[in-house]
Amino acid sequence: xxxxxxxxxxxxxxxxxxxxxxxxxxxxxxxxxxxxxxxxxxxxxxxxxxxxxxxxxxxxxxxxxxxxxxxxxxxxxxxxxxxxxxxxxxxxxxxxxxxxxxxxxxxxxxxxxxxxxxxxxxxxxxxxxxxxxxxxxxxxxxxxxxxxxxxxxxxxxxxxxxxxxxxxxxxxxxxxxxxxxxxxxxxxxxxxxxxxxxxxxxxxxxxxxxxxxxxxxxxxxxxxxxxxxxxxxxxxxxxxxxxxxxxxxxxxxxxxxxxxxxxxxxxxxxxxxxxxxxxxxxxxxxxxxxxxxxxxxxxxxxxxxxxxxxxxxxxxxxxxxxxxxxxxxxxxxxx
Length: 335
Hints:
The protein is mainly beta and 335 residues long. The protein has two helices and 25 strands. Strands 5, 6, 9, 10, 13, 14 and 15 form a seven-stranded mixed beta sheet that branches. Strands 18, 20, 21, 23, 24 and 25 form a six-stranded mixed beta sheet that branches. The termini are far apart. Mean pLDDT is 86; it is low at 1-44. Keywords: Protein transport, Transport.
């Protein structure tokens, strides 16, 4: 028994409880219809499956990022003149044939402003055609390679900003795309900073007739696994200090001018002193950065964002009043 029903341009033909959905051509071109159309076709026909295998992935170094939205990421690392290559496999997924408008792979570097996607943009893009328009009748594999691709910026995953490198493989069909994304990391050693001479950082904190101290950090530039060393000298102490601590703050800034936004995150706090010091006392500073989630400092990346690191020395008295002094330092990646 045959029944025909028509619902908003969709003709449903029922043959003995077997449903065949036929999409009829409509002039209405709204986005909602296209999404609904693609969803119906994917549901009835199924989608091909795209898989990607990177060459040498088992032996390549990996690094870890923590992303507020994506969680912990473990990504393969590419540096210097490294190529990225591998194999793309398109699987039929039980379909007898797949009509398509082409298969392509892109290597993309993108800065994403998490809270304002309008400010997000690509800073690099490379593309290769894997398959021209046609019809697939069986699973197919494609080799790809991007030789010595430009590594302009280091990968970064922060609270408000994300700098990603990824491969995007997609098959274009008449009603949409089937795609796969594979993230990887770019790390950039900075030997030029390592070779620069170091200068100590000296600052004073004073309250008239109550407190006078100075503190010194022996260096202004630190690699990711370095040790912050220095000292605090107490020349006058007439307030009852309860404790002193040193904090490392990461400051993300994005946007320009009046639209600039800042996000501060305290990465670690380390107690330098417990109790009130005496006049003339010297307190040593020693803070290991190897256990802190830090990245290299970056300034005005493609006019989009900066990442700064601040050492924040804090004194707290018995009335819980806080006295602090902040000093920016440079973090770099050692070769």
